[in-house]
Amino acid sequence: MKSYFSTSIPTFCLLSIMAITSGITRATKSDSEWLAAEAKALMETGWWSNYSRAENHCTWPGIRCNAGSVVEIDLGGHGLNGSITPQIGALSELQILNLSWNSLTALGLLTNLTHLKKLMTLNLRYCDLSGPIPPHIGKLESMVDLDLSQNGLVGPIPSSVSSLTNLSSLFLQSNQLNGSIPEDIGGLTNLVELDLSSNRLSGHIPSSLGQLSGQIPSSLGQLTKLESLYLHHNQINSFIPHEIERLKDLKYLDLSNNWFIGPIPSSTFTGNKDLCGSIQGFHPCPSSPNVNRERNSKVVKHNLLIVILVPTLLFFVSTFVLVTFILFRRYRAKTLKSDSSPTKNGDLFTIWNFDGKIAFEDIIKATEDFDIKYCIGTGGYGSVYRAVLPSGKVIALKKLHRLEAEQPAYDTSFRNEIKFLAEIRHKNIIKLHGFCLHNRCMFLIYEYMENGSLFYALSIDDEAVELDWTKRVNIVKGVAHALSYMHHDCNLPIVHRDISSNNILLNSELEAFIADFGTARLLDPDSSNRTVIVGTYGYIAPGSAPSLSSYLFYLVLSILSFCCLFVSNYILE
């Protein structure tokens, strides 16, 4: 017997040591495998792709461990994209998960978090989440702080939220949640903060939220615009705070069915608007039918007032607009009428017979304020400029020189040209598009003649070659037709008094046009009046004042110089 025990004891001790050693080995191996599994789960999220699995994951950014296990992940504002990966669900010791201010578009994968039985804080604020809140969120039994605010969540608030009995704060504001607030949400007895603002919720606030207890806070007196205060059927066990007397706009107050103690001071209620009841100093409240009748009467009066005021206001506004429009039209017509009549020193800018609009600013811009580089010639009393309008139309501008504009004779010539060309309508007489009579500058707007004057065409060999005899005869005929029209078809004959090759212009088709009517005048056959002799040197009839007979001399001389390629100066010499 003794021998048996002496042999068994060492054997037993050896077996015990082996068993303990084996258990420790298995425990060490189990812990090692667990840490490796955590590191693998974290790596598979893709959020720590720059780190090696061989490294201690507890040192990675945003991770806090306790006894080698991950208990907190804080990656707020790290620019994460995609979804909440299912690997997070393997972190069974996780207590805090903050992924706020990222772009995690899918909330449905919260299913992966339901295995986190120890998760106490979940912050997904500003994560661009969309879709409904999954019902299985109620499986996070240890949840204390839940923040899903500032996202695009839709649908109703799941009733499973009421299963989070440890919940202290719930933030769902600034989403697109609809439906009603779950009735069971009042069962969250530990709830301290609840924010459901900026959503599309409808219906009534659940009565279960009204099971209040404790004291009425004195800060309630700061709600100076409060009109209704209902605190009935609660368990409020305190004095009625004196701060309530600051609620000057309070109309309805109900503190019934509570555990209030102490007196009701009259100063707490006096001075308020429309308070009534059986309390001393208050007038009795009207019965319900009277109250309804009074409300209905106010509604009817309000609607009647709207029906009367709106049409009346519309009538007066319409009348005012109509009268203003009529007065404006009259003022504009009067202004146009006054502007259309010439004035000696006024501002006059008139355009007619033109397929577009010309503004004074366009003229100045097109010629760069009558720069010399746009000057294409000089007439009897001014310079001629070429201008291209914004529409692409090319026009000719005859501008009276500033010094000449101050001389009455040139001013008269300028007005004469406007007067005669405004009345003349002939295909061989230059067309006047408009004019500007202003103290700053005076100019005429003409149709542009591409080939310049006849004098220019005859004085350049290349241009003269193009004028064969047929074209020259047509030019003479055109000038003759224009002169015949001026002498015989006008009410009073118009004497040009300066027909020369300089004043005969040619267009692109080499058709002739008479221009420069600055020296023209009406000829009254019954009048013996004669003016001074005017005209271009070399084209004036010898010893003759302006008349129809002397006018023929101008034409014959122009024809001779035209046909013989001589200028008038050579003939006279």
From TrEMBL:
- Tell me the first and last residues of the signal peptide: 1-27
Q: Which SMART domains match?
A: LRR_SD22, LRR_TYP
**What UniProt keywords apply to this chain's record, in alphabetical order?**
ATP-binding, Glycoprotein, Kinase, Leucine-rich repeat, Membrane, Nucleotide-binding, Phosphoprotein, Receptor, Repeat, Serine/threonine-protein kinase, Signal, Transferase, Transmembrane, Transmembrane helix
Q: How does it sit in the membrane?
A: Single-pass type I membrane protein
Kindly name one Pfam family recorded for this protein: LRR_8
The UniProt record lists the Protein kinase domain at: 370-573
Which reactions appear under catalytic activity for this entry?
L-threonyl-[protein] + ATP = O-phospho-L-threonyl-[protein] + ADP + H(+); L-seryl-[protein] + ATP = O-phospho-L-seryl-[protein] + ADP + H(+)
Q: Which GO terms describe its cellular component?
A: membrane
Which protein is depicted?
non-specific serine/threonine protein kinase
Q: Which residues cross the membrane?
A: 304-328, 551-572
